[in-house]
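Aim 2, interim progress: modelling of the zinc ion-bound target.
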Amino acid sequence: MKIIPLGGLGEIGKNMMVVEYNDQILVIDAGIAFPSEINTTPGFGVADTKYLSDKKDMIQAVLITHGHEDHIGGLPYFLNQFQVPVYSTPLTKNFIDFKLGGKNRHNLFRVNFYESYKLGEFEFQFFPVCHSIPDSAGILIKTEVASLVHTGDFKFDDKPTIGDPINTKYLSSLSSKKNLILCSDSTYAEKPGYTDSESVLNANLEVIIKNAQGRVLIATFSSLLSRVQQVINISSKLNRKVVVVGRSMIRNLNFALDAGYVLDPKSTVISLKESTNLNDDEIVLITTGAQGEVNSAMGLISTMRHNDVQIQRGDTVVISSSPIPGNEVRYSHMINNIFRQGGDVVYQNISLVHVHGHGSRNDLQRMINLVNPKYFIPIHGETRHLVAHAKLAENSGVAAQNIFLIEDGCTVEIKEEKASLGTKVPSGTTYLKD
Ligand SMILES: [Zn+2]
Ligand SMILES: [Zn+2]
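Predicted structure of the complex, ligand included:
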């Protein structure tokens, strides 16, 4: 069995991994690269798939871990080249359906957690993980020679706002599998401790909304639906209505409400138009643009360019995010601009109003201990994150010669008795126009 990452190792983004056995292939994720300061090529980047170009008939399917752009953003391009079925959890399928534009020429399959699916020589199962978008999954792939656990992006959250905690019994039950390989998310491998649970924000957000004299505006990520659920619950309790501003968030929320991932039993969510009859202290606006993106809802509001929403004196504005590396300057400008217009801004340096979606060192160690793999490959991260994670695995008892610190295009070959590095394959970034 061969494991060949084509994206996401040695960089953050454009995740893609090839799993190959007996001339058959499964691909995990097909993401896009985030723009960066080093890489200023226009358009967006996807993993170079030259390696697969003469192996079209070998590809059985693409398995998608979750609905973030760095995991699904490259699918339209990938499926144009390779007409293969796509497997994902139900909410992730909704995001993919939307992305592909409703053209039904693709085979999209909805999986159930823990159910076994057989394709050729592979058997695979999706299992739930906690992350910053609902319905996120890790994937177990089994072949005759070895089994692979791919965590996707994850953290442990023992009190998640949406969904269940990670099933630790299930993870530890995998440890008996033959030649078990763990590929685990390294994004926060430098960060000590555990990542906080989503639920630690409840008390803080409630105090902020309760004490606000006027409107409350909360900016966050459009796919961070657990945060939206928290805001709905707290607002409902405090007799405020919630208005969602920003197209992508309205769309995502509708997917999640329809599929029952987000609940609004008291019809707390109303339209912007309906809110015009309410007093300021009866309104919470939740918006996109928590990174200060120029044309996002909060980006427009903070620079007085939004058609319907203006900051007014008495507004409390919560920035429920932390800046993604590269966005710090824009993020800071946004906060300054809102203060200037008379809003009172609450953000991460002032109060705990955001928690991350990736596991910190203790979470990562917990994953390694539970799965107890024979082989370990740190994935999803820049080189320094992968190195930190590899060291952590060694300290957690994985044999040093069984840890593969690799980057895109490397091959790890697993045989009955041992695993070793194989040949390098073409890899890199293909740039597409928007
Ligand atoms: Zn993610
Ligand atoms: Zn990711």
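The radius of gyration is 22 Å. The longest helix spans residues 225-237.
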